């Protein structure tokens, strides 16, 4: 991943915070062929800085920096953007209308924007703290421009993302990688502690991290509070553990998103760092 600004930008060591002397710049995310779970690290400048238009959320380029094809020879999108609707527990699909093979001359590129799957323009939006899939038939990059996502974009008291019972796709909202163990604080819908284990000694809340290189998941569980009848599984100070109930030093990458699967509604809060 590459993060640059109009003025001098400092390339950090892995895990260090991204710093720039100009808050307006761009974030380049490397995409592998296949599925990539990503999250915007830049937001718009202005009153609605926590919301981005999907149509212009980012531009695509191939591995050589050239334009990314919009459609293949079968009139299908070569690159898809999939946004998870946690309420409906289903996806909304968009396609990249970039450049097209010469033999397809009746499907306009529409200035390299994302369209809904009916090849229509969209006014849908995505929020800071929300992730999405990029599915592409070739490796490339996605460049997101705007204002650096930093503590000034995290509301006072933390960025709160509501969780429904079921699957929730949640973004790493920070311009840096963060430890899995301290990836947000979970609470129930009333702000109370979230259970760590259920009566079957299984995790009540799972954190599922996508590895684009392996095209597979890693699994973690929330060790928060436990029912009274489970007294031999410590809460370990409200952290995420690997699925073997062990502490982990794994990281969630800058620009990544994750799944949070929970049996009941709740909230995850990301504090200022």
Features of the shown structure:
mainly beta, 2 domains, five-stranded antiparallel beta sheet, 24 strands, about 0% helix, disordered N terminus
The helix content is: under 10%
The 3D shape can be described as: elongated
Biggest pleated-sheet summary: 5 strands, antiparallel
Low-confidence stretches: 1-22
Helix-strand category: mainly beta
* Count of discrete alpha- or pi-helical segments spanning 4 or more residues: 0
The count of β-strands is 24
Q: State the end-to-end CA separation.
A: 21 Å
If you had to describe this structure to a student in words, what would you say it looks like?
- With 273 residues, the protein is mostly beta strands.
- It has 2 domains: 2-151, no CATH class; 155-270, no CATH class.
- Helices cover 0% and strands 42% of the residues.
- The chain is built from no helices and 24 strands.
- It is elongated.
Summarize the entry for a quick read.
By secondary structure, the protein is mainly β. The chain is built from no helices and 24 strands. 0% of the residues lie in helices and 42% in strands.
Topology:
Blueprint: E1 2-5, E2 9-10, E3 19-20, E4 24-31, E5 34-38, E6 42-43, E7 51-53, E8 59-62, E9 79-85, E10 90-97, E11 113-116, E12 125-127, E13 132-136, E14 140-148, E15 159-163, E16 166-171, E17 178-179, E18 185-188, E19 205-211, E20 216-223, E21 239-242, E22 251-252, E23 257-262, E24 266-270
Antiparallel strand pairs: 1-4, 2-3, 4-14, 5-13, 6-14, 7-12, 8-14, 9-10, 9-13, 10-11, 15-24, 16-23, 17-22, 18-24, 19-20, 19-23, 20-21
């Amino acid at each position: 991943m590459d993060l640059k600004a109009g003025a001098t930008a400092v390339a950090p060591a892995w895990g260090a915070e991204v710093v720039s002397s100009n808050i307006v710049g761009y974030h380049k995310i490397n995409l592998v062929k296949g599925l990539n779970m990503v999250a915007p690290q830049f937001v718009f400048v202005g009153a609605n800085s926590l919301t981005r238009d999907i149509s212009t959320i980012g531009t695509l380029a191939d591995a050589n920096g050239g334009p990314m094809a919009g459609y293949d020879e079968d009139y299908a999108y070569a690159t898809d953007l999939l946004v998870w609707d946690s309420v409906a527990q289903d996806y909304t699909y968009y396609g990249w209308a970039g450049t097209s093979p010469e033999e397809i001359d009746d499907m306009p590129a529409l200035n390299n924007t994302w369209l809904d799957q009916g090849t229509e323009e969209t006014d849908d939006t995505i929020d800071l703290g929300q992730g999405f899939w990029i599915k592409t038939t070739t490796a490339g990059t996605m460049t997101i421009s705007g204002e650096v996502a930093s503590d000034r974009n995290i509301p006072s008291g933390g960025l709160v993302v509501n969780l429904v019972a079921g699957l929730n796709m949640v973004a790493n909202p920070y311009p840096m990688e963060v430890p899995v163990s301290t990836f947000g604080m979970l609470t129930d819908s009333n702000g109370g502690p979230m259970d760590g284990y259920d009566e079957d000694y299984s995790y009540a809340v799972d954190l599922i991290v996508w590895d684009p290189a392996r095209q597979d998941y890693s699994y973690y569980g929330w060790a928060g509070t436990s029912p009274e009848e489970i007294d031999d599984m410590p809460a370990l100070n409200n952290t995420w553990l690997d699925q073997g109930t062990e502490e982990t030093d794994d990281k969630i990458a800058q620009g990544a998103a994750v799944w949070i699967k929970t049996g009941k509604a709740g909230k995850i809060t990301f504090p200022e760092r």
